[in-house]
Amino acid sequence: MPVELNGTLIKELRGRTCRILSDEGWTQSNLGKALGVSQVMAGNYLHTLPKKYSEPIESNLQEASMSLADILKLQEVSKWSLNITVDEQVININFPLQDDKEQILSQLTAVRRRLEVALPLLSPQVRVNIAIASNGAVSKSDIAAFPGRLTPIGNKARPVSSPKFGGSSHLSDLLLELRKLDSKISTIINLRWDPMISEVLEKLDLKSVKLKREDEDLVISKNVLKSNAMIDEGGYGFEPSLYIYSSESDVVCQIVENIASSMKVMA
User: Fold this and answer.
1) Residue 202 above 90 pLDDT?
2) Domain ranges (residues) in the chain
3) Given 31, 127, 146, 246, which is the most exposed site by the fewest CB atoms within 10 A?
4) Residue 78 above 70 pLDDT?
5) How many CA atoms lie within 13 A of 244 on its CB side?
6) Which residues contact 230 (CB under 8 A, 6 or more apart)?
7) Superfamily, domain 100-266
8) pTM of the entire predicted model
């Protein structure tokens, strides 16, 4: 594959196809389902200008996009493939296609939006972040988060920048340690920890595990597997924190929402 197309061909092909079908009346929801991406991602494609490639790449790519649009309009197949010839090299592309990492980024954005109103109530001084691990994650580069964390603005938690892999060193370290004990654990979020939230956890009957600290490192033992919450009581230079984690992001969201709802009642 030509170097200039490496890593961008799939996105460019999807984007051009989205624009073709949008001009024919397709909604973002329909585009996302057809191409195997989220509705948000389909919208991003529609608002991103296409890149102009040199020939013969440009003609081949546009022709492939038109062919893919025609295939989608037939609505007769759930999987298909396209062959693109570039500089006498045949490139085979299968659809629908959304790799694991792209799914994680979409999922992370969805979690942030679901919790954007709840998080300002629970934000520590260092601010909140959310991290989700890809399948088989073994390093920080396999875990996505929001660089710069989430900042409360106008009663909503807003990202400083788009989520990306390697976006949080601290949460990635904790998530990797948790995954050593249970590889199914995939999602973690940090919240503030104080007497009021402690009281809320008791009312919700949510079990938690208090972590020990060795110098700058938190020690995570098998006890954390009995709960979905662990507490760092902090120390010199370290703000107390509550961490909610689970193998399912929906579980994490529900716990955070329950805590936020209880906080509103107590306020």
Assistant:
1) yes
2) 3-95, 100-266
3) 127
4) no
5) 25
6) 208, 209, 210, 211, 220, 224, 242, 243, 245
7) Class II aldolase/adducin N-terminal domain (3.40.225.10)
8) 0.67
